[in-house]
Structures are given as C-alpha cells and as structure tokens.
Amino acid sequence: DDVLGVATTADHAAVKLRHGGMLAAPLVVGADGRKSLCREAALIDIDEHRTRQVALTVCFRHTRPHHETSTEFHTPSGQCTVVPLPGNRSSLVWVLDPAAAEATATLGDADLSAAIERAIHSILGKVEVEAGRGLFPLGVVTARSFARSRIALVGEAAHVIPPVGAQGLNLGLRDAATIAELAIAAHRDGHDIGGELVLERYETMRRADVGSRTVAVDLLNRSLLTDLLPVQSIRGLGLYMLDRIGPLRRAVMREGVAPRASQPRLMRGEVL
Q: What's the whole-model pTM score?
C-alpha cells in the first residue's frame, strides 16, 4: 500500500512511494501479487483462464494439535487444505463452486465452525473460527514474460495456479531464489544486475518449471471437477499408489518441493 507506481529507464528502475519519496535501483523484483504494479510497469501481458471455483479462506482454532502437518482433502468441487499456524491454530483454503462459497461465507461463526469440522473430518477436534473471511475466484494466470525493463516478476505477479499441494508457494520460492542467485553472480562479476543478460537468463531458467507445474496442477484440478469415470479412476489409482508405495510417495513429495532439474543453489543450501 505504500507504493504508488513503478517506472523504468535505460539504466535504473524507480519506485514511487505514497509519502512522496522515491527509491531507485538497477533491478526491481516484483512480488506484488496477481494485480502487480511491477508487471503493469513492465508492459507485460498475461494469459488467463478462470475456473468455476472460489476459494474461501479463514483461520481457526482447534482442540487437537496439528503436529506441524498440512492436510489436503480432494472433493468434487476442489481442494480443502488445512495449513498449520503457531499453537493450536490453522488456516483453511476451501475450494467450492461460486454459489456454495458465497453461502458458506455468510454462515454464522458456530455454523461455519461446524461446517469446517465436517469438511476436514474432525482431524483437529473441535473447531472455532476466528474473525475475517476471504473469497478469491480461482483460475490459471501466466505472465507472457517473467522479466523485462529492469523488472523481474516472482510469485503471483508471474503466475497463479489453483491451490494444489502448495505448488504456487513452492514456485514463488524458487523464483525468488533464482533471481537472487543471478543478481549475486552478476554483481560479483561486475555486470549490471538488472541488465538484459540477467533478465533473459531468469526467463529461461524459470519458464520450463512454471510451465510444467502449471499444466500438472491444472490437469489435477480439472480431474476433480469432471464426471468422467475413466478420469476419476486414473486419479484414484494414482493417489492409491502414492499412499501405498513409500519410495514413490517420497519421490513425488521431493519433486514437488525441491525438483532436481530446477532447484536454485540457494535452496540447496549452497553458499554463493
């Protein structure tokens, strides 16, 4: 909220602040969400398609410990994901069809608490919602370029996908680590950290990872919404195999969090 706009020139980028100040740097990293001012300043268009889904978000207290474990339920309308917070508290991302999301969001605290407890099969005991609820239409958004004019986009400024397996978060972390790694290397070698060489390298390094994850998550999400029995059977078989075959499950989880082909050195714990 403190940033009014972003502008770029041939040799620097400038961020205009609400109180009247100005920040200038050779590179701006745009981590400002799906309505990114940085993306707008760089004149980067997006490709987008919406799904008939809305995510209801809310935080709640519960009587059983979560043991620092995130749990995701797959339902006919989408995912219902519980994310642990400090103490006996968690946040919920509950994907519903638009009408159901609107109706659920207007429930009283007691009724919403009961609905959440049923949706997550009482795994956290008695649930009590906290103040504040959000509704977010879902879809797939991908920037046509991840970097231009001394601006590099990370996270939802560059790509938005349905909330499946925290893949959007993981992609954003790899974005940030990659541009940091490239900027450090350029500075060490005496190059312009916001120059075309760095930006083109960032685009190349992130495009395949983002593209493959977007396709995979979108297909899995669509498989939840279809009534086609063969699709449901294939998805069910895949999840069953992940549950029963330990090495396969660990390999899939490792690839989801830290893929070997596109993991930045910073995320491998290497010193740059």
A: 0.77
